[in-house]
Amino acid sequence: MKRLVQLALALFLFWAPAMAQETVTYDFEDGLMPEGFTLINADMLIPASESDSAFIDSAWIVFESGLFNSWAALSLSWYVDDAGPADDWMILPRLTLGDGAVLSWKAQSTTSSGNFPDSYQVLLNTGAPSYEDFSENGEILLTVAPEGYQTAQFREIDLSAYAGQSVHLAFRNITPSGDALLVDDISISNVIMTNTREVDNAYFGLTVLSNPISQGRAQVAYTLPEAAEVNLMVQDLMGRTLQMLPLGEQFPGRNIAEISTAQLPAGAYLISIRTKDKIGTARMVVRR
Description:
The protein contains 2 helices and 21 strands. By secondary structure, the chain is mostly beta strands.
């Protein structure tokens, strides 16, 4: 996630924490689903193609798209016996919106013929990032039915009516019977930020040694410019935390940590190193 500071810090009272309005962008270019995203596969339908088996348990995945010539989030809508509709959710982390906030993104249906385009909704919710809460209290901001397929479509929504509110935004694939939907370069301007961790992969240089992993343990290497309390987290690509390992105070320089992979099924996982104010991520692949 990239954060570009747009406005100067606003000081309220002499003891109050400083806050800034920033643009938050999710471009998926590290090939990973961003930290804090909630993915819900509400339809639980079976993909029509065996090559799409990653979608059996996942609503959205990060995919290297030839249409965009970049990594993007992709949601499938082609199922066995043309079952449908799709009901796949990608919910963004909670954001506090400032004055004049705007949500923008690009999207495209992947159907090459144009006969099976995808449809989706963009929703907002001030409650929990859950299917139940969005169903009961969520507000549909936009329905695109269907999305274009010949070129990427650039869209935006004015969120100024929600200034000062803490919200979750969601993309929901609702295609009756289609192919797949690509979404990329999600950007929210004028987001109020306070004391958040910054994702900075270059800061840590986190790498998984001997990746892919075929043994029962994996080693990860990272570098600390200065001593810090460190936690190591293992998540699946749906964002579920599988392991949280407190590593304690670590010295500056190169460090090595171990992860048990014995209980992890074959597949891809997100590894993250966390200090008080920064996060570094890397992908780990387990083979059996």
